[in-house]
Structure formats: C-alpha cells, structure tokens
Amino acid sequence: MKRVIRIQTSGGKVPPQAMQQLQGAGLNAQEVANIINDKVKPVASLGFQNLNIEVEYDDSTRRVIKVNVEYPPITDILLKVAGKDTPSHQAGKEIIGDLPLEKVAEVALIKMEELGSRTFKAALKQVVSTCRSIGLTVNGKDPKAVVKEIDQGVYDELISKYEKGPTSG
Question: Counting Cβ atoms within 10 Å, is residue 128 exposed (0-12), middle (13-18) or buried (19+)?
Fold first, then answer.
C-alpha cells in the first residue's frame, strides 16, 4: 500500500522530528534524508530554507517510491538569484536586473520536472520567458531575443552541459 509522509525542511535540512517519523515508518531515515538534502540543496543555497517535501513509500516493502519537493515559484527563485525583492511593475518596459544564462539554466534545472518539459531546452526557454515577465534581462538582452538565440542553436553547448547534468565547481 502506498503511503505519504509530509516533511518541512528546516534550515535547508531534514529536522530531527522528521527523521523519527521516517524511522517510525520503517524507512532508512538517513538514506531518505540524503535524497531530500540533495534535492533541496540548490534552492537552500539561495536562502529558501523551509520547503515542503512529500515522501511516497510502499508500506509493505518499506521502499521509497518518490521524493517530491515543493519548490518556490520560478519568479521567486529568479528574483532571489538576481538579488531583487520585487518584480518589475511594467514588465517589458522597466528592467530591474540582468542574469547570466548560466544562472537561468540552473533555475530551469531545479524546476524542469515541475514544468513538465520533455527537454532541458524547453524548460530553459520557459524560464527565460519568465525573466521577461518580471523585468529581468538575460545576458544583457531582452529574453525574447535570447529565446530566439536558443532556437537558433547559439547556446547548444550550454544546453548539452545541463542535459548531461551540471558539474560541480
């Protein structure tokens, strides 16, 4: 039988009471905590500390089926990366900041599963388009132009790097 445990991270980590809850369900709490910590690390490093997590597991086999992280909205993550508190009040006209495409790609990687994109390229285009709606430019350009450049293959090297998985450092 499938069961779900709901957890809220604290300080970007799994709190002790959640560890007890996982152990009480007969799961390897440290293994599950490691999975959760890996999934929340990208946004916890940006300052998002309290995230809601759902751990789906099979009650009969005591095996984890899936760990779902409820990430903050794309706009919140982009604003945090840009060091801004509020979006533009006149999207497309008022520019509040600029992000390198590499940073936008990191956000796309975090949100890719949630976006339902089949490819990293599609997820990246969605996140670049979101930049425009909150008043951010990408690589010093209007995000519309960057989406066209993505379609033209200008950033294929960057995209293939993220499709394989970003390297640390």
Answer: buried
